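Schema walk-through. Below, the input block comes first and the output block second. Nothing else is stored per chain. Lengths vary across the set, and this one has 248 residues.
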Amino acid sequence: MSNVFFLSIKKQKPKGIIRTSARHNTREMYRYTNPPVSIDSSKSHLNVILRGAATAQEVNAYANQLMKNAGITKIRSNAVRCIEVLFSLPFNTQLSVVEYFSACVVWAGQYFSGEENILSAIIHMDETNPHCHVLLLPIKNNQLKGSEMFGKLGDLFAMHKSFAKEVTSKYQLTTTLDRATLAEKRDLATRVRGLLKKRNDVVLTSPVWELVKIDIERNPTRYVAALGEGYFYDVPLQDTRRVYPQAF
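--- output ---
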């Protein structure tokens, strides 16, 4: 199970979203409030900043400086102000997470807008799966081109292939569980059900819970990804793209 990865990208549009996202990623948002149950604050000291500042204010200031340098003075209300890319590994990975996610960050910068436009890259070790959030300012030709960089549904395959060629193939990673043993799948399904119970998830009391349990047994991978990166599903589907399990 240590050779499975996940990749998500998300548009960030609301005014102030860069600061808000950075506050979540730096954990400043939870300095005076309780974090969501998905975050184990006793492990937050294990998080690693790969790029950018340690505070949301400084991350936001860097974004403003980049826009000023590009001559961007006005932003449309519906403009994509930021692209967030999330890379995730399974909970039992044997890889060096710093080495792997560093390679992911370099790829993201090159693929989307240039490494100089990476506002922040932070590894989280305090949730179910080790994962890395990368915030990018989508500047191209001195303009915000977030929607263009995000692309259309047809562009997802090209992104998938690029990431596989440049990063995951070098770490013998895959997005398929076809080679996993039944015991490994059962173990993963057990962990998923245990986490749902720990969170007292509403699905446990839903009329469809029995159907969900069957689906967890058949394909636990997507539940691991969702539970590890659950807040990504708080945005509309068209604003979030996930590379689902698929063999290269």
